[in-house]
Write a sequence for this structure.
């Protein structure tokens, strides 16, 4: 309580000092505000730059394309810049507040394609934020991909500070954190499982994404809920000028997006769908024996820009994987999200965004056998309201504050009998509920021309609520001999357990010269929801659980320092960052934990600490014929969890010492371009047996310690070539053909090692069945692909 | 419930290839392993004591001979075991266990004393076994001639929390998918009337099919789940992290001393 009081005082003091800021004798000041848009499609441009040279004042547009700049009365020449667009200079006389929406023309060099990269040229040096990367969506379409599906998650896995558990997986690991420590948002709605086909592809259709930002550290107070990162994916609004469509056909899936104005320049929509079609073939092919696998995604968004003061968005996503085995067995999983957003300008300096969010993840397994089959379902749902306010106090000082409230419901498992004949009865595990609140106040503060700060405080409060029954165990860590001493039953919305935590955030940037800066940041993150999975790559059948009497919130502190420098008129962007992250009450599970359909799951929880540190280098070239990036990360991540691995520290499952990635695109001519990816990483750690023994005829592995071995190093080269036929003047139709090869030099990259009784290629046991062998699994050999894309 | 991992691997098998690799493994100290079984059926009591091996070693565990093995019940009856074959101990005087009694094992190997205790739980008898032809399997049998299903009929007591281990035999040969699955179940989802439940193996005409049902403790149930996970682990990718099995043996040995009510039924496969 004392701590809470202290925080409250701090908050108040903070507010006073903040509003006291423009307390100097003032000449009259007015505010220039508006939106920056693409002239061709009307799409808002995010994080674009506005600059006034005489006063050296500047700002960037926000996540919704809005900017606000307050200046003394006078006449100014303002420069609006955005990468891939012609800079615009506008003369503005400020004698009153001025609304100015600016439409930007794509730069001549890239006229054939509207390049929407959400960056201003020297943003990486200028911005206070560090450890933050945007994924160049248009660039990744020119890079090689697995089976021709450009995939934002696969690109994220190659960024500095990010590792993957292996190819063909959609989990990513940021600065030593596990996969569930990433908050992945699509139009502000969380997506709980981003995998299609167990991770071969992610659920994000590259054609609908406008921007994808990954925050690895220095996370602003506005965001919270996960320990390691935030991935914010914003979808396109839809063309507000004219009808447009785009689509493509690849080896795996076909996709189509349609967008059009509803009211010219005022309202528009976009609908995009993607569906795999392997199942159409599989159903009719004998060798699959009735097995058919498919996935689909559907994105839809409507926006209505009533006026500069009020804008409304409605965005929805729904995607699903369906695996059908004969007619007897089926499994499916998917996410559904919906976002309603209202941007409102109270005045030129007070921008408000009200968001209502819904998100659902569910899976089902259905064995239709009348006797020994059943339907197994699980899901988690959340509904949330969020209010974010930006108050542009002065050009040097912006206040951001807001609130988010979330209602969560977890259904960890429900089994329904197939009827009378079934040997099973219908049983459900207890549902769990939670209310999640967070208040935050943050400031963006330009102290001097060189020094800028971002600081703030997020205060999060989490209630595990009823209805529900909580057992009191004789020994909560004993998962074998469960002795229940007592139990307490809670009513609907009755608080079972309350947690609250301050989450301070701080970031500073000091400009050494216009081309280089140093930055430091600190953030504390608290995670109140926990993924119930002990595999390296979460499978889609994992459930989540709220913090509760037997599960404390996870907490992490991270500090990072960095040096940022741009070269050659911002043609090259370079950064090096070092980080140290320490997590407490990190959720792990007992050895041999039973995580599926366990009524006493609480006895499987083990919480401990993790520690990770690393050094990241990043070089990006975003202009010229050769574009792309290279990254190198040196990192280490270890865990120490009482009750796991004999209480000894062990390397994290995704701990990889060296990570080198290159992604390059080269424009040979206006029609031909080449792309290449190269990856080299240290193999992931794994646990191998130190011995074996037979027990009742079974050959059992004997282990000595967790993650004591490593797979051999991983390296792979992918190549692609893109051909865009000459555009017919006067027609909008545009084609492109992409051909490529994944794993060009056909490297056999180890994916995992498992053990089995020694057998021949046909699966017949060799010898007396007592001998064991280790099998190394390799996923993809050289995989050529082809895809065709169009737009008009 | 862990078998949902299987379709995952199946899916990846479409794209994967694999080969046998030679691992350079660290040497660990040999551990003593105890495998014990006490049932309520005559002749179904034994204790086997052996040592663990290197991963690439062939053959059975090296036997531990000369141990002093006794089993005692909670009424004060003690049964001395004699070494029938190297490392394999059976009661000197035959006895059968009683449901509801607790049995304590004491095994002395050199200086070390290992103990374990378990209660014998009730197992419901089989109502019957029946034979049925699986028409789909008959049309395209995986193994020539094997398309008969064996159906189990049994009543599951609903008033108690029970755990079972099933063993399936074809002509006295155990069927467990080449030593990769222990069929351990809890009764959380089971309804009382279990009828027409096909066992997971097909039989040919003339085969003798036997099903054994062991009542096991929760600890023993966990042991067999651990065992199945251990031998099926995929290297911790989609399955949980590889781990050693839990044990009920105290004193530093591994393995399990199982005490079970045992029901058995057999049927000759014929039309």
């Amino acid at each position: 309580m004392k701590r809470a009081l202290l925080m409250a005082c701090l908050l108040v003091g903070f507010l006073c000092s903040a509003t006291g800021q423009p307390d100097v004798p003032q000449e009259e000041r007015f505010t220039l505000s508006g939106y920056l848009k693409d002239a061709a499609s009307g799409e808002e441009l995010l994080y674009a730059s506005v600059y006034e040279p005489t006063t050296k004042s500047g700002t960037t547009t926000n996540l919704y394309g809005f900017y606000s700049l307050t200046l003394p009365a006078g006449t100014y020449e303002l420069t609006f810049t955005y990468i891939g667009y012609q800079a615009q200079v506008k003369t503005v006389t400020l004698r009153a507040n001025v609304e100015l929406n600016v439409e930007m023309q794509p730069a001549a060099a890239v006229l054939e394609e509207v390049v929407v990269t959400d960056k201003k040229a020297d943003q990486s040096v200028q911005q206070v934020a560090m450890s933050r990367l945007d994924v160049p969506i248009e660039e990744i379409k020119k890079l090689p991909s697995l089976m021709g599906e450009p995939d934002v998650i696969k690109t994220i896995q190659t960024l500095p500070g990010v590792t993957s558990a292996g190819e063909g997986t959609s989990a990513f690991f940021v600065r030593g954190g596990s996969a569930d420590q990433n908050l992945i948002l699509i139009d502000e709605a969380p997506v709980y499982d981003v995998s299609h086909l167990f991770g071969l592809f992610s659920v994000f259709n590259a054609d609908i994404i406008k921007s994808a930002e990954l925050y690895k550290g220095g996370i602003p107070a506005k965001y919270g809920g996960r320990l390691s990162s935030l991935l914010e994916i914003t979808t396109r609004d839809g063309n507000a000028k004219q009808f447009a469509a785009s689509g493509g056909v690849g080896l795996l899936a076909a996709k189509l997006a349609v967008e059009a104005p509803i009211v010219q320049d005022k309202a528009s929509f976009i609908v995009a769908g993607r569906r795999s079609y392997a199942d159409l073939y599989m159903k009719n092919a004998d060798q699959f024996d009735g097995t058919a696998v498919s996935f689909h995604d559907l994105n839809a968004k409507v926006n209505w820009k009533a006026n500069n003061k009020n804008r409304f968005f409605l965005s929805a996503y729904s995607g699903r994987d369906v695996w059908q085995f004969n007619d007897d067995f089926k499994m499916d999983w998917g996410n559904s999200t919906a976002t309603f957003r209202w941007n409102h300008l109270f005045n030129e300096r007070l921008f408000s965004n009200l968001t209502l969010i819904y998100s659902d993840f569910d899976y089902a397994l259905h064995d239709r056998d009348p006797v020994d089959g059943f339907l197994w379902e699980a899901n988690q749902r959340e509904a949330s309201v969020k209010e974010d306010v930006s108050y542009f106090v002065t050009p040097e000082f912006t206040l951001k504050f807001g609130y988010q409230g979330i209602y969560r419901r977890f259904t960890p498992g429900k089994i329904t009998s197939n009827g009378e004949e079934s040997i099973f009865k219908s049983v459900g595990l207890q549902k769990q509920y939670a209310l999640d609140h967070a208040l935050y106040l943050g400031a963006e503060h330009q102290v001097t021309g060189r020094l800028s700060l971002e600081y703030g405080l997020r205060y999060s409060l989490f209630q595990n609520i009823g209805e529900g029954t909580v057992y009191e165990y004789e020994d909560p860590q004993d998962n074998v001999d469960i002795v229940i001493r007592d139990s307490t039953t809670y009513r609907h919305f009755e608080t079972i357990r309350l947690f609250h935590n301050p989450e301070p955030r701080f970031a500073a940037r000091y400009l050494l010269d216009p081309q280089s800066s140093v930055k430091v940041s600190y953030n504390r993150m608290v995670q109140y929801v926990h993924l119930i999975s002990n595999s390296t790559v979460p499978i889609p059948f994992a459930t989540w659980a709220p913090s509760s009497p037997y599960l404390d919130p996870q907490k992490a502190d991270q500090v990072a320092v960095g040096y940022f420098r741009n070269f050659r008129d911002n043609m090259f962007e370079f950064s090096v960052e070092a980080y140290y992250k320490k997590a407490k009450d990190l959720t792990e599970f007992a050895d041999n934990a039973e995580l599926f359909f366990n009524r006493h799951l609480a006895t499987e929880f083990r919480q401990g600490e993790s520690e990770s540190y690393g050094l990241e280098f990043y070089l990006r070239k975003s202009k010229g014929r050769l574009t792309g990036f290279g990254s190198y990360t040196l990192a280490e991540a270890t865990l120490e969890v009482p009750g796991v691995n004999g209480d000894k520290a062990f390397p994290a499952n995704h701990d990889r010492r060296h990570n080198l990635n290159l992604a390059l695109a080269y424009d040979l001519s206006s029609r031909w371009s080449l792309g290449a990816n190269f990856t080299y990483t240290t193999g992931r750690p794994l646990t191998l047996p130190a011995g074996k023994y037979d027990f009742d005829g079974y050959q059992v592995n004997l282990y000595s310690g967790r993650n004591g071995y490593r797979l051999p190093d991983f390296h792979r080269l992918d190549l692609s070539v893109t051909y865009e036929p000459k555009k017919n003047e006067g027609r909008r139709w545009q084609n492109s053909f992409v051909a490529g090869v994944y794993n060009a030099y056909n490297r056999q990259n180890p994916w995992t090692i498992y053990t089995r009784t020694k057998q021949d290629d046909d699966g017949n046991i060799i010898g007396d069945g007592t001998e064991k062998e280790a099998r190394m699994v390799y996923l993809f050999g050289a995989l050529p692909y082809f895809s065709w894309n169009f737009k008009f | 419930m862990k078998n949902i991992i299987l379709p995952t691997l199946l899916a990846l098998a479409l794209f994967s290839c694999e080969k046998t690799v030679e691992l350079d493994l660290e040497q660990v100290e040999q551990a003593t392993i105890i495998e014990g079984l006490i049932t309520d059926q005559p002749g179904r009591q034994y204790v086997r004591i052996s040592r663990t091996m290197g991963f690439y070693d062939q053959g059975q565990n090296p036997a531990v001979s000369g141990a002093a093995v006794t089993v005692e019940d909670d009424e004060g009856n003690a049964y001395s075991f004699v070494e029938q074959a190297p490392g394999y101990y059976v009661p000197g005087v035959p006895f059968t266990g009683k449901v509801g009694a607790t049995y304590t094992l004491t095994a002395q190997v050199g200086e070390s004393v290992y103990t374990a205790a378990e209660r014998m739980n009730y197992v419901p008898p089989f109502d019957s076994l029946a034979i049925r032809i699986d028409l789909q399997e008959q049309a395209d049998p995986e193994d020539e001639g094997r398309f008969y299903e064996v159906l189990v009929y049994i009543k599951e007591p609903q008033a108690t929390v029970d755990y079972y281990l099933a063993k399936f035999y074809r002509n006295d040969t155990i069927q467990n998918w080449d030593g990769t699955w222990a069929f351990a179940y809890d009764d959380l989802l089971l309804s009382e009337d279990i009828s027409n439940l096909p066992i997971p193996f097909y039989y040919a005409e003339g085969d003798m099919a036997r099903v054994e049902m062991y009542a096991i403790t929760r600890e023993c149930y966990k042991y067999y789940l651990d065992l199945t996970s251990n031998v099926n682990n995929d290297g911790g990718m989609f399955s949980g992290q590889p781990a050693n099995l839990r044990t009920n043996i105290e004193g530093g040995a591994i393995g399990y001393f199982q005490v079970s009510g045992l029901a058995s039924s057999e049927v000759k496969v014929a039309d």
